[in-house]
């Protein structure tokens, strides 16, 4: 550029984007790093033939994808959120917020300078740039309440946030209490149901035992009654047989005598001498047998009567016990239902 020429700014002015005041220490500096590591910079003898390495297809595809994403992001217009409208009676103005004000001009001051440093000396560190203070300081007076009051403006927001937080917390606590109450109610219901099932099983077992006992007693009583009937039949048959045999000998002898069997001397001797003693002995034996049968009948009758009385007493006691058990179970069921 010649000294007589003036540099002109041809691009349209635009707002400066937001950036950090200091450099990010985590920045690797690949975008603005050392150019000696850039593949596009040729190092060494420029007259020699430069051997271009064969590009990797995967790397080329990755670069193309990155370039297409950059173009896509560049084409997308990002609208910056605008500044809210000014309050009535005021207007917005562009001001500088730097520590030192600078005078903005359309023409940039240019000059050329040359210098030569010693070959052995190291490059000194760059001095800290301190722009000269130019322009005129202007101040203004801001009354109370004209600017944004954080305590007043954030109070409704804080009230809404705190209220919603407390409401949500109360709802969660109420839900937890309701779940705990449902759990307790379910546990109580399970306990009552298990207790009722145990009681029902116990009553069923008792009823089954009582039915089995009743069937056993009925079978035992039927067997005993059958045995008593057999005994009575045997006694009656023996008594009938003894009564039938009592007159059989006399009738037989009378029939034989009528038939003329005992008409000889021997028979006469028997009739006159032997038969009276025999008859007397038979009568005595019959009487003794009758007495024995009567005594046996009396003993059997008394034994049967005593057994029947004992059995009747036992049955009456069992009936009373079963009645008491039924009455107690009925009262227990009524008390449980109440």
From TrEMBL:
Residues 21-30, 59-68 have a biased composition (Basic and acidic residues). InterPro entries: Radial_spoke_3. Residues 1-35, 57-90 are annotated as: Disordered. It comes from Symbiodinium necroappetens. Transmembrane segments: none annotated. This is RSP3 protein. Residues 1-13 have a biased composition (Polar residues). Belongs to the flagellar radial spoke RSP3 family. Its main location: cytoplasm. It holds the Pfam family Radial_spoke_3. GO terms for cellular component: cilium. Residues 69-81 have a biased composition (Basic residues). Keywords: Cell projection, Cilium, Cytoplasm, Cytoskeleton, Flagellum, Phosphoprotein. The keyword Transit peptide does not apply.
């Amino acid at each position: 550029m010649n000294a007589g020429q003036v540099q002109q700014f041809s691009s349209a002015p635009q707002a400066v984007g937001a950036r950090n005041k200091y450099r990010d220490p985590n920045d690797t500096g690949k975008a603005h790093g050392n150019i000696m590591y850039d593949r596009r910079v040729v190092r060494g003898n420029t007259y020699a033939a430069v051997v271009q390495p064969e590009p990797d297809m995967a790397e080329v595809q990755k670069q193309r994808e990155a370039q297409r994403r950059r173009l896509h992001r560049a084409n997308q217009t990002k609208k910056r959120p605008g500044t809210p409208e000014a309050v009535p009676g005021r207007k917005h103005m562009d001001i500088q917020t730097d520590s030192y004000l600078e005078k903005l001009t359309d023409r940039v001051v240019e000059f050329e300078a040359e210098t030569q440093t010693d070959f052995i000396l190291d490059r000194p560190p760059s001095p800290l740039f301190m722009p000269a203070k130019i322009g005129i300081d202007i101040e203004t007076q801001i009354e109370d309440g004209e600017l944004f009051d954080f305590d007043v403006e954030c109070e409704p927001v804080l009230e809404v946030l705190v209220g919603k937080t407390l409401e949500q917390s109360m709802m969660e606590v109420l839900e937890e209490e309701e779940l705990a109450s449902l759990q307790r109610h379910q546990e109580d219901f399970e306990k009552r149901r298990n207790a009722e099932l145990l009681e029902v099983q116990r009553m069923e077992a008792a009823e089954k035992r009582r039915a089995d006992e009743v069937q056993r007693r009925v079978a035992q009583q039927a067997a005993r009654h059958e045995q008593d009937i057999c005994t009575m039949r045997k006694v009656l048959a023996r008594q009938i047989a003894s009564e039938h045999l009592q007159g059989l000998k006399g009738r037989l002898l009378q029939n034989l005598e009528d038939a003329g069997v005992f008409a000889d001397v021997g028979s006469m001797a028997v009739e006159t001498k032997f038969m009276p003693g025999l008859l007397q002995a038979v009568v005595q034996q019959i009487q003794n047998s009758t007495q024995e049968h009567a005594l046996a009948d009396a003993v059997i009758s008394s034994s049967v009567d005593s057994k029947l009385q004992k059995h009747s007493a036992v049955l009456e006691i069992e009936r009373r016990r079963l009645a008491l058990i039924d009455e107690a179970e009925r009262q227990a069921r009524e008390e449980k239902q109440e």
